[in-house]
Design brief:
Order of helices and strands: HHEHHEEHH
Largest sheet: 3 strands, antiparallel
Amino acid sequence: MARSKASAKPTTAQPPIVSSAHLVSPHSAEMSEFEFGLIVAGNAFHRWVIHCMSAAGLKDLTALDVLVLHHVTHRARNKRLADIAFIMNVEDTHLINYSLKKLQGLGVVESSKNGKEVTYASTEIGKGYVTRYREIRESCLIDALKADDALNHDIGQLARLLRVLSGIYDQAARSAASL
């Protein structure tokens, strides 16, 4: 019986590129390959946001600090600590709080109190750094990408897949925590 092309495995296939061969599952070696790619891409992305913000003029920030500043600036609406942590999928609000305090100390984020609720927003100085970051991002990243419609479509598909997988990882974490 002939095998279909879709199910046929090439005989010269390379072994998966993984960081932890002992975790490779016979049911999905691709997941180990994905995880290694995620590790490498995540570290590259963090390095990128730090260097881009440094080039914009804000130095000595962590990747989380930069991402918090971007989220606080997002849509020019005041944000609560819990909402920032929720949207960024950061379980430990102390990490977000530490970044907010650091950003406040730099004068790029300000807090306001309405009753018991504290919210955070970018200052005009913070918005200026974010604008400069965007200009550098366009010049160094987007222009270098040279994306056409097909590549932009693939990037969108990958973004959707990452959101699906983040939900699966979150559910798996809840399952593991209950063992």
